Structures are given as structure tokens and as C-alpha cells.
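Onboarding guide, step 5: your first structure request.
Type a short instruction followed by the sequence, for example:

Predict the 3D structure of this protein.
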Amino acid sequence: MKIHEVFAYLCVPDAGAAIDFYQRAFGVREKFRLTEPSGRIGHAELDFGGATVMLCDEYPEHGIRSARALGGSPVTIHLHVDDADALLAQAVAAGATLEMPAQDHFYGERSGAVRDPYGHRWLIGHSIEDVQPEEMQRRYDKLFA
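The system replies with C-alpha cells like these:
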């Protein structure tokens, strides 16, 4: 069995508002949405520069709850971009909460983190150096010395 793709599938309390937020925060494009007569969005897809992120409204009657309803999520979504500082600023301007300002890291990336209004954490970074795994491990070990 071959896996062809992996998609993040986010559950949010207001998918319509979340789609608007992700468009403003990350500059994504909505591919499509399936909306019930009540207005609840059962499925939507967003194009993150060629990668698809799916999302839906909460369906507590089926056990589908948002990160906010669960008190947060242990999952972080990583966006690898051209300019982490700029996208972090854009996300904060759109309503995200800055959790970690951009900084250079031992593994060759400049990155920071935001939490969106729906409880999801986004790590946003760009490459600053090509670091081989052995060197990365050496630098990591140094942090604990």
C-alpha cells in the first residue's frame, strides 16, 4: 500500500470565519466548501501553496470537536515559507496570538509560532542554513551540556 498524500484536517467552531482568517493570516486560497442548509460547513479545502489543508465545523453529535472545545491541541502545523518574520507578522495582524517570536535555531531554520483563534498552533519558518543530521545532533547535545 502506497501513501500518496497526508492532509491536516482541522475542526473549528466557525469554519466560515476560520477560512476568512486563514486567507488573511496565511494568504491561502479556498478551493471549495460543502455547506449544509443550516450554514454549517461539513468540509472545506484550502490551498496552502500547493498543499491542501481540510477543515470543517464541529460535529459534537459525531464526536468531532475543535481544539478550542478540547482545551487545545498537542499538534503543531509547520509552514515552511520564504520569510517567517513577514508571515508571523501577517498572522498576528489577522488575529493570531504570537507564542514565540522568530529566532534563529540550531537546526538551520529561523522560525516562530502563533496560535490561531481556533486553538491550533502554527510554527512558521524559513531555512537559513543547510545542517546535516550529525551536526544537528551535535548542536542539540550542546544545548543540554
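Each response can be followed by summary notes, for example: The chain is about 25% helix and 35% strand.
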